[in-house]
Sequence to fold (1046 residues):
Amino acid sequence: MNGSMLDWPLTLDRILVHAERWHPDQAVVGAAPDGTMARRTYAECADRARRLSAALVAHGIEPGDRVATLGWNTLPHFEAWYAIMGIGAVCHTLNLRMDAAQLAWIARDAGDRLLLVDPALLPVAEAMRALCPAIEGIIVLGAGTDALIAAHDPARWGGFGEDQPAGLCYTSGTTGDPKGVLYTHRSNFLHTLAIIQPDLFGIGAADSVLPIVPMFHANAWGIAFAAPAVGAKLVLPGARLDGASVHRLIAGEGVTMSAAVPTVWQGLLDHLDRVGGGLAPLRRVVIGGSACPPSMQRRLTDHYGIEVRHAWGMTELSPLGTVAAPSAASAALSPEEGGRLLQSQGRPPLGVDLKVVSDDPDAGPDTPGRLFARGYATVGRYFGRDTPATDAEGWFETGDVAVIDRHGFLHITDRDKDVVKSGGEWISSQGLEAIAAEHPAVAHCAVIAADCDRWGERPLLVVQLREGEDCSDASLLEPFDGTVPRWWVPDGIVRVDAMPLGATGKIDKRALRDAYRDHLRAS
Amino acid sequence: MNGSMLDWPLTLDRILVHAERWHPDQAVVGAAPDGTMARRTYAECADRARRLSAALVAHGIEPGDRVATLGWNTLPHFEAWYAIMGIGAVCHTLNLRMDAAQLAWIARDAGDRLLLVDPALLPVAEAMRALCPAIEGIIVLGAGTDALIAAHDPARWGGFGEDQPAGLCYTSGTTGDPKGVLYTHRSNFLHTLAIIQPDLFGIGAADSVLPIVPMFHANAWGIAFAAPAVGAKLVLPGARLDGASVHRLIAGEGVTMSAAVPTVWQGLLDHLDRVGGGLAPLRRVVIGGSACPPSMQRRLTDHYGIEVRHAWGMTELSPLGTVAAPSAASAALSPEEGGRLLQSQGRPPLGVDLKVVSDDPDAGPDTPGRLFARGYATVGRYFGRDTPATDAEGWFETGDVAVIDRHGFLHITDRDKDVVKSGGEWISSQGLEAIAAEHPAVAHCAVIAADCDRWGERPLLVVQLREGEDCSDASLLEPFDGTVPRWWVPDGIVRVDAMPLGATGKIDKRALRDAYRDHLRAS
Ligand SMILES: Nc1ncnc2c1ncn2[C@@H]1O[C@H](COP(=O)(O)O)[C@@H](O)[C@H]1O
Fold:
């Protein structure tokens, strides 16, 4: 039909150009390795990133080529992202919690040409490169990139279509070898517009935003795009994510909004328990990556006046799936019921479709089932694979087990592989964890499936007690009394000094299962 | 490259499907002609809209066909929108402030096949149809659509690409005949994601949103898409937009956010002056369409505690261009200076590029110049035209004159285009001039926009009489009688001995505006 709207491709370079043009003096600050804060503006970052782009082009990097980064959330890492993506190359964010062999496997699979690395991670990078001869060079984020920036004039960005790949992120979230999700400019751009919304992260130009979630964990959940997209101040925390450091950053940089996995918030709350003090000017935190215990949510809300947004997502969804935010539905309920909705994983934004499929065709709507997702930022095919990651209708099986309640709120009851199947019935490990976490002596806890001759599997509670605390098994099991069916109560308790953490900082339940799968049998 | 994200086209049917799935019980209410409120939920609206779609299909409406609506913001109008767009047809929103002849010209230009009309507007619709035989039928919004909905099973939506046209809106904002802007599913979808943002309209599922701006005025600025997109309650005000009616709606429907042109807010403030009372629970209003007087902004903010978001846009931008919201930049200034930023037209969101071009190459950055825009929801080519509406780089000349200050805030200082904007609606100065020139005593004439406290602008007729001629104001105004809507008739007449002429020998209307802008105020 004659008549049309302008062709304006959704490419990510436009995000930093927007910040440079309309929020030129807004601050982007990052914790340097020595603990001091480096400070720049969006205008400076954009100029520097364009110069770094020119250095990559001079090296021979072409659109579609993979350039890997291995680093914490820092200013040089932020600039490197836009430098890589701005010329149509693919920014492959490596997970710094992996060892050299794992990293090399992934870099080979990705076909990375260059590696940009934090100075502190140079040893692992060198070890990795020895296993991965195709990598043409290592550039140190900071000293190395500064030198290149000084030596080059700005490159021109853009000029490619919105379906150009922009980022690559590997996940070992499901079984088998790690698999790469190849984000496009379009999918990341749309994901950015989604998370900015008031009911999701709710970010504006008056905010100071602290992404504690790593840039290698599904693009820091999109925050390194969303902050410049709205002109918010961006605070990059570097390598120190302990409670004291996070507390200092919040106060020192006027942080109003932040996002991280539950373990980080637990560290911060423990720190505040020890030293006292408040969290002003922090107003809102997004908690996701694993289930946020209701007790943590209550402490942040009731004691510190923080609005907690519980979020569910996964690398394959870019990553955002759902967020729990107040709504007409939650406001119409009793405070207790409404609160339960806000403790759920929440609802999807426009652009994410979800469905729950039960194995039992006669199951009612409240029966947990396998969760499928689909949307404008959902993986279609893993990097380098020939077959789709979805079914013919585009549905991607998440591997999570969930219920969608009649208000449209999602309740993840388990990972498919975490579920405890006792006597043919599912017991929600996450439900039990939420209860165990209520106990005042418990710092971290996990419920895993232990093998059992009689029931197939039975729940086993693994706890890490708070420093200096001690308590009996009976006391630890007390919170379950009357709150769950009797057959859900864990059959045993294991105490550990420190929980094993996975690559993205979540409790590594797979490691726990490997270690304690036979625990109930042996005893 | 191997590996990709899912193909998920940005089509508008998904917006109402999203609301139906995730916010099924959220209310959509609309003032009925008798003043009572009709109440439905998103789930009901979606079902009804799909049934109305089936009726359109049964009539033979195909993707791309234009179906016109002529109506206030009502529930049946809202349902008709999605019914039309959901099957890939084009919803052509006619401006009910035009007369039958103007409407017929536009409907012929658009090639409308059907007309859906408010019962109260049936007379003008019939008169219009007499001039426009290609219209195959008239359906009354309410009685007529209800009957069709009852008689049909739901149709299937979607199945077309995101570049499918979805809406058509004519503007007489620039010179010459009215021109149609043909919105696509993609452009409206992206515009929706933009306006939801905290720094723009800032809408969430806990909001109750009242779009007073008509659905025929650039899609109610996008609100009829944004409210279901986030699951907000939607309150449709119907035909009564006077202060008392708006006041009643705000209190009665718990309205937290609203949007309208300045004239509407003036009416509400005048009403409150008379009867007293407050505006709770209203928290935020978007004011645009013409400049919001700082005094109005101050009264709403200081006296009623309302956050005012001053916005600039135009039909060709879908319509949003800029919004003034608090930011780090405004907070860093003195209250007075920061306040001035919030009284400006504000900053563009990601997805809108702006530039100011001065005719004087030596002009400093603070010199007003011609404003150009470009973005993912900017017109590329007017409906039915062969030539682009933009230059080769995609820049669309807005016809506004502006300064962009060093904080990135836009200040509209003037208008290049030759039109009068009265109460948010255009009056064609050229149309009036053509009529005035008919008078035998008139040698030259010009109609300019004069400032007016109540309507923003009103038409002022400037005449140079033939030598030796003299005649009364009443005689000069006589030709307008019955040929244009009553509210188009000039509010005053200025007689000059000689028209100022510009460089090309045309009447210099800018010089006239400079001289007589205050004429109606002074008198
Ligand atoms: N906030 C505003 N301040 C000044 N002029 C405005 C504002 N909003 C809209 N306009 C004028 O209205 C025109 C768009 O009209 P329309 O296409 O009918 O929405 C713009 O080009 C401006 O001339």
